[in-house]
TrEMBL record:
It comes from the Bacteria. Keywords: DNA replication, DNA-directed DNA polymerase, Nucleotidyltransferase, Transferase. It is an enzyme of class 2 (transferase). Transmembrane segments: none annotated. Belongs to the DNA polymerase HolA subunit family. Residues 20-130 form the DNA polymerase III delta N-terminal domain. Its EC number is 2.7.7.7. GO terms for cellular component: DNA polymerase III complex. The keyword Nucleotidyltransferase applies. It catalyses: DNA(n) + a 2'-deoxyribonucleoside 5'-triphosphate = DNA(n+1) + diphosphate. This is DNA polymerase III subunit delta. GO terms for molecular function: DNA binding; DNA-directed DNA polymerase activity. GO terms for biological process: DNA-templated DNA replication.
Length: 339
């Protein structure tokens, strides 16, 4: 998020670092950042001849340094080393050529390393972090709900559109928590509303593709409210898009996580512990924690048992899968009230 703004600012000012290390799990954001960085070189040479992407599996560090030091007819060059393994634990490759280069890089070349993960204790990482001409950027996905809202608002601003916070929250809940998917869904909304600057809830409901995870959350909300009719209606909508076994698999996962939240709450735990204890993301933890407070332990336990019975019935030809799921949901809604 802010990393892309830093890159954009560097491009606008023409102050590109001689050496970059971009790392993080969010590949989409890295690719967006790369588009911004490449724009600097395309402005100077529309053919893109000054941009070179190297394969770290085919070239040694010494050969990569040689490429970075190569002079050409182009005033500026961008050399990208994708999927760079050099900053990870357990590397046995001779990295001295890189360390020497960091102390005296070619000012006409931007050498960019792209890595999914890094070990900050590695000698190479420390050498780059100390290099005057080097810059390290970590591309991480938003974690908290407010961070996701801020990301969506920033993307909307870049597209010249606006969305109320309530609408943005609904949009994120429906479209999921993958920046690439959210970006595509925003592009669809922008095309749909045309010249209109504000995107409404009606627009989101009309255009946005709801993820199966969001539908499962809604399904369990209906179960928590003891609304069999609403739960079955939601289930039927999901089954129009997804295979019954996939729906059941996600139901089992969700109920197990809800039981985990319930157990954690009973032993005096809190929301902050949920992500590490259950191995899930913070945004999912918050929703599960809230949802688990509406469902009694007995209802969740019996619901899990119903899920497992239904799984056996579906896999042994015990009836129409859709009908079996509907019966399971109806029995799930019939649990005891939360006290």
């Amino acid at each position: 998020m802010r990393e892309i703004e830093r890159i954009r600012e560097s491009v606008e000012k023409g102050r590109i670092a001689s050496i970059y290390l971009w790392h993080g799990e969010e590949r989409f954001l890295i690719q967006e950042g790369l588009k911004v960085l490449k724009s600097f070189y395309f402005m100077r040479d529309p053919s893109g001849s000054g941009i070179e992407v190297l394969d770290s599996k085919e070239l040694s560090p010494a050969e990569i340094v040689e490429r970075a030091n190569t002079m050409s007819f182009f005033a500026n060059r961008l050399v990208v080393v994708d999927e760079a393994p050099y900053f990870q634990e357990g590397q046995t490759t001779d990295l001295e050529p890189f360390i020497e280069y960091f102390s005296n890089p070619n000012p006409a070349t931007c050498l960019l390393f792209v890595a999914e993960s890094v070990h900050r204790g590695r000698k190479l990482y420390k050498a780059l972090s100390r290099a005057k001409a080097g810059e390290i950027l970590e591309f991480s996905v938003p974690k908290r709900p407010q961070e996701w809202l801020a990301w969506v608002q920033a993307e909307l601003n870049a597209r010249g559109k606006a969305m109320d916070a309530k609408v943005a929250s609904q949009f994120i809940e429906w479209a999921g928590h993958q920046t690439g998917v959210l970006s595509q869904e925003l592009d669809k909304l922008v095309a749909f509303v045309g010249d209109r600057s504000k995107i409404t809830m009606s627009d989101v409901k009309t255009i946005t593709t709801r993820t199966i995870e969001a539908s499962i959350f809604n399904l369990l909300d209906a179960v928590a409210d003891r609304s069999s009719a609403k739960a079955v209606k939601t289930l039927r909508e999901v089954l129009l898009e997804e295979h019954p076994l996939k729906v059941l698999t996600l139901m089992v996962r969700q109920v197990r996580l809800l039981l985990g939240c319930d157990a954690l709450r009973k032993r005096g735990g809190n929301l902050a512990e949920v992500p590490s204890v259950l191995g899930i993301k913070p945004y999912e933890a918050q929703k599960l924690w809230q949802q688990s407070s509406k469902l009694a332990t007995k209802q969740l336990s019996e619901g899990l048992a119903e899920c497992l019975k239904t799984d056996v019935a579906m896999k042994s030809g015990g009836g129409d899968p859709g009908f079996l799921l509907e019966m399971m949901i109806i029995r799930f809604c019939g649990g005891e009230s939360v006290t």
